[in-house]
Amino acid sequence: MRPNASALSLNPPAAAEFAAVEPLGTTLHFTFGTSSMMDFVKNWIHFVRSAQPRLSPFLVGAADKRLLTACTELGVPAAAIIPELDVWTYERRSTRDEVYQMRSDWAYMRHHRSDFLEMGLVKVAFLWELLAAGFHVLISDLDVVWLNGHWRRWMSWADPAHPPVPQAAALALADVLVTTDELDTTHDDSGRGVSAELNTGVVYLRGTRGAKAMVQSWRKAMLRQKGGKHLTENVNDQSLFNQVVSGGEVKDLQAWLRSRRAEGVAAPPDAFASLPGNYRRVHQTGSSHEPCLPGAGCAATTFTFGTLPVRPFTGGHTWFNQNVQEMDGHEQPQHQPITVHFTFQFGDTKEYPHGKRQRAREAALWAVDPPEYFTEGIFVALKGASYDEEYKQQVYRRFPEWSPQRHMFMDAPQRQAVRDLLGLATAVGGIMVMPKLWCFCDRYWNALSKCRNPHVMGMGLPFNCPMDSLYLTDRWNDKKVKFREHTFLSNPHMPAEVRANRVTLTVARKGEQARPHGPDAVELPYGTPMADVGRLVRQSHPQFRVLEVANADLRRLCRWLGSAPAATAFNAVLRYITTESSRYCPSEDGGGHFRAGFNWQNPFHGINCTWGFHSPTVFPTSADACSSGAGIDLSERSNSTTCPRQMLCDYHTLPDGRDTKPITWCNLEGYNGMDQKFLPIAKRMLASRPDGRCPYPPGDRPGDPPW
Questions:
Q1: How many Cα atoms within 13 Å fall on the side-chain side of residue 311?
Q2: Distance from the CA of 247 to the CA of which of 1, 92, 267, 378 falls in 20 to 30 A?
Q3: Is the preceding omega at residue 164 within 30 degrees of 0, hence cis?
């Protein structure tokens, strides 16, 4: 495979794998990263190796020596860039490094303003070398999971026995194919146009002059950013890809088909004989680009590109929020999911992509947890829902669909159940299994319409939402909270003997006697302290592994953990991990009305957003919590709102459980960033109101004025 002039250094498994591979006409499945993402590398490899039809050959691009060494030890084909290559100039230099080393002070570089740009250059160097060797390259990010190997349905005519689906007849000839952040599946199914940002999570580069021209143009776009004073996390290889890959629709398909065949792209002469109306359009750049390294001298050419459909090539919103895998027709070839890309997530930090991993676990698409993840300790899980239908209907009657307060009031009992479940798991020395969570409003950084992303107005509410929609998973991990995802007990890796050895815990109603224990059930008296539950259950079921309890029974226990210090420590952690800072800005209530000359530092320009999430009531710290009833009948918050009608909310909870600032009710009451010149008039207006505060918004009707 490797030409003498190649800038790739193959490890022994890769050298053996590619010794007999003819690059021309071969699609190489490729990913790329650093050793800091090793578990994602392993997860990507697992699903690539498990996919049917097979995804072969595949190669891991290592941006540092540690990843290359780890892949060698695992027997995984991998390659590095030779150390002599300067990815900025693409010239050779002298060095003592064994391979090219990507260095950063961040472990997870996705949002580093300059390091991620360099990562893009290293990635492009890999792509250039592989294309130059003659391969077609199908690159996917490390946070992409391959559910199966049916990529050919959308990308290639090379196998006459397995032609692409009719909608992909033209797509399967384009130089470049790429996934998108499109959310509207109906619009996307029409096949017309590009209406969303291109997402480089999955990119197919055909071994053509056009694909090479795109890669070199992409590389040049990155080079132009070097040393830029205004680099931000939003200037990265993907944003620059979007600038480079643009153009108009190819109209004369027959002429284009002839030119493709003349270039050697596999396709029958009648490829477009029966195009459906919703065939996916192909676009062509208006300008030409050189398909060679600078100074090599070559004729410039245009390139063609198309977008991959969002139902087969899913993202974080389409998979987790819209559930495309369950939509009508999901089993049909043109709709069957092929990949899942963990996008639209929250909770990632510079140390680790916590939100991505949590979503992968919830979808049972995380294959690298050790066996003890499924076997250690006792697992405490909620049986059934955390709220009842009557409560839901009460909230629905009070708050219209557009109001984020519906979301906040429905979140409160769920957050209380998480608190109680975690408290019980802590008391018995076990591990909490997160309950199934429901969102009644989509989480979106801009204005919402009917509590939905305005690009997906047909989306159903409520939806079973991932944990990171409601909680910052990095906080849970930083505090080393013992918990598992809500799908944990149904995970195929869960040993049958653990899953089967479960006990259902019930708690007698107030004033009633507890019933006798059963072979797989234990009933305890009303008000039993959580601190006693483990001992009492073990008396009749000493080997139990899973403890399940319904929310009504959970609430009849006394929330006493055995000592004041234990309760105090639990409360500090609880406040930190159950507080979030998410905003929901309804367009129906001034959530997106940016007036002319908008100034975010002017409270009279501020838009209206409902902020959450507030932590639930903490556990009592007094030893008489059970005898007084204070540990059973808590004074609960009715909703999880922090700032109810404000552009920015300064309320946060620190790692030690302390709050930063008091909760404010409107923009006039102040927020971090308000220009002080507006403070006098804001104070005068507040002084004229009852109690010197804005009225607390009712949440069921728009307010006026917007501030």
A1: 22
A2: 267
A3: no
pLDDT recorded at residue 96: 58
Domain with CATH 3.90.550.10 in the chain: 8-341
Quickly count: other Cβ atoms within 10 Å of residue 550's Cβ: 18
What is the CATH class of 8-341?
Answer: alpha beta
Query: Can you tell me which residue has the tokens 């020395």?
Result: 429
> What are the distances in angstroms from CA 570 to CA 7, 419, 581?
54, 10, 21
Distance separating alpha carbons of residues 520 and 330, to the nearest angstrom: 39
Q: How far apart are CA 525 and CA 528, in angstroms?
A: 6
Dist. CA 79–CA 68, nearest whole Å? 7
Question: What residues in the chain have per-residue pLDDT under 50?
Answer: 2-4, 104-114
Structure tokens that stand for 707 in this block:
């501030």
- Rounded CA gap, 56 and 130, in Å? 15
Q: What would the two tokens of residue 119 be?
A: 């990562």
> Contact, 620 vs 567, CB < 8 A?
yes
Instruction: Write the DSSP symbol of residue 354.
Output: H
What percent of the residues of the chain are helix, what percent strand, and what percent coil, each to the nearest 5? 30, 15, 55
SS3 202: strand
Residue with tokens 């010149």: 677
pLDDT score of 97: 63
40 vs 192: CA distance, rounded Å? 34
Q: How far apart are CA 456 and CA 186, in angstroms?
A: 9
Q: Cα–Cα distance between 152 and 159 in angstroms, integer?
A: 8
**What pLDDT, in 10s, does the model give residues 599-631?**
889 888 888 999 999 999 999 999 999 999 999
pLDDT of amino acid 564: 96
Tokens (6 digits) for 421: 């479940």
Rg (CA), the chain: 28
Which residues, including other chains, have CB under 8 Å from residue 378's CB and lie 6 or more apart? 428, 429, 430, 431, 534, 544, 545, 546, 547
State the greatest distance between any 2 C-alpha atoms of the chain, in Å, as a whole number: 90
DSSP conformation class of 620: P
The per-residue pLDDT for 230 is: 64
Q: What is the SS3 assignment for 504?
A: strand
C-alpha torsion sign, points 420, 423, 427, 430: positive
Q: What is the rounded CA–CA span in Å between residue 263 and residue 700?
A: 63
Nearest to 267 by CA among 149, 159, 176: 159
Q: What does each C-alpha distance from 486 to 353, 365, 462, 463, 546 come to in angstroms?
A: 19, 13, 17, 14, 14
Please say whether the beta carbons of 643 and 418 come within 8 A.
Answer: no
The CA-atom distances, in angstroms, between 102 and each of 33, 63, 235, 339, 350 are 9, 5, 18, 28, 16
Report residue 231 as tokens.
């680099």
Do the strands 379-382 and 431-433 form a parallel or antiparallel pair, or are they unpaired?
parallel
- Please state, in angstroms and rounded to a whole number, the distance separating the CA atoms of residues 250 and 26: 26
Tell me the β-bridge partners of 49: none
The pair of three-digit structure tokens given for residue 43, joined into one six-digit string = 């997860």
DSSP state of 530: H
Residues in the chain: 707
State the number of CA atoms in the 13 A half-sphere of 190 facing the CB. 8
